[in-house]
Amino acid sequence: MDLESERLIRGAVFEYLERMSVTYGTELPWSVLYDEFLFEETTLRLLHRGQGIWKPKQLTAALSILTTVDSPYADAFDHDGLLEYQYATGSGAEWQNRSLRAAFDSALPLVHLQGVGDSRFVATWPVFVVQDDPAAGLVKVAVDDPQRIDRAISDELAETARRAYYTVLTRRRLHQARFRHRVMKAYRSRCAVCRLDEAVLLEAGHIVPDSHELGQPDVSNGLALCVLHHASFDRNLLGFRPDGVVQISPRLRERSDGLVLEHGLQAFHGSKLTVPDATADRPDVERLAMRFDEFVSQND
After folding, report:
1. Is the pTM of the predicted complex or chain greater than 0.70?
2. SS3 readout for the chain
3. How far apart are CA 58 and CA 53, in angstroms?
4. Which of 191, 210, 264, 299 could form a disulfide with 196 if both were Cys (CB 3.0 to 4.6 A apart)?
5. Do residues 61 and 53 lie in contact, with contact meaning Cβ atoms separated by under 8 Å?
């Protein structure tokens, strides 16, 4: 296969991932990545069981690299913002590593798949192998999303600044995906306020923001909230007392603006949060108290 055809196929893969991300959000299920999809007369899948480096037989170079949930993506960045990805070992390692080097030699884009648990993955594309280090048994991978970067920062910035920017952006996105996955699992994918169980309308909210020293991405610092209650919580229109009792801003309780306000917010004033079964996953009382103080001060 010539390079132009290989690039066209990879472009189709990226378009497929875009479509699946619209349907499933940031966490893609195993089935979406493992099931075959058809591009013209080529049938492809994005990964294979037991192989961290995957090259479909139709291609000349690796199409995807996988990092398991036990090997956090963010921890593998070097000081230049490059992902250090280890060579494969064991059965089939030779051809997997050879396919990774082929992607490097031909500057072909790949997909990076980061496991977040329960056979779900965060996909990042395109990424490029930019260094091969046989002595260390690894390659170094740069994340490259030119359109997204160009929208966010000026072309006048140096390449190192651009890479540093996107490294931070990628780390944040993957941390958020892992945090969301753990919170949703603990809350059984139900809003802690209204118990809505429609996954696409649920988000993982931080009790204390991650910018705070106590804002670690622990489940006990998280709440599963529907989009309405999450937005209200972030804007201190909805708060939670340390004992888990829901409080609605006085100014919202005094208004009568229709069914959404009445049934979506006012009706939950004085109700109790629905919390996880596991004690360790329940909202941390100290953090709830800190956040509730902010709610009170904003609504005096």
Report:
1. no
2. CCHHHHHHHHHHHHHHHHHHHHHHCCCEEHHHHHCCEEECCEEECCCECCECEECCCCCCCCCEEEECCCCCCHHHECCCCCEEEECCCCCCHHHHHHHHHHHHHHCCCEEEEEEEECCEEEEEEEEEEEEEECCCCEEEEEECCHHHHHHHCCCCCCHHHHHHHHHHHHHHHHHHHHHHHHHHHHCCCCCCCCCCCCHHHEEEEECCCCCCCCCCCCHHHEEEEEHHHHHHHHCCCEEECCCCEEEECHHHHCCCCCHHHHHHCHHHCCCECCCCCCHHHCCCHHHHHHHHHHHHHHCC
3. 15
4. 191
5. no
208: its two tokens: 């204390």
Residues in contact with 43: Cβ distance below 8 Å, sequence separation at least 6, in sequence order: 36, 37
Neighbours of 279 (CB within 10 A): 8
Which structure tokens are listed for 7?
A: 């690039």
Q: Which long-range contacts (CB under 8 A, 24 or more apart) does 36-42 make?
A: 39/9, 39/12, 39/13, 42/9
Tens digit of each residue's pLDDT (9 = 90 or more) over 5-30: 888 888 888 888 888 887 888 888 88
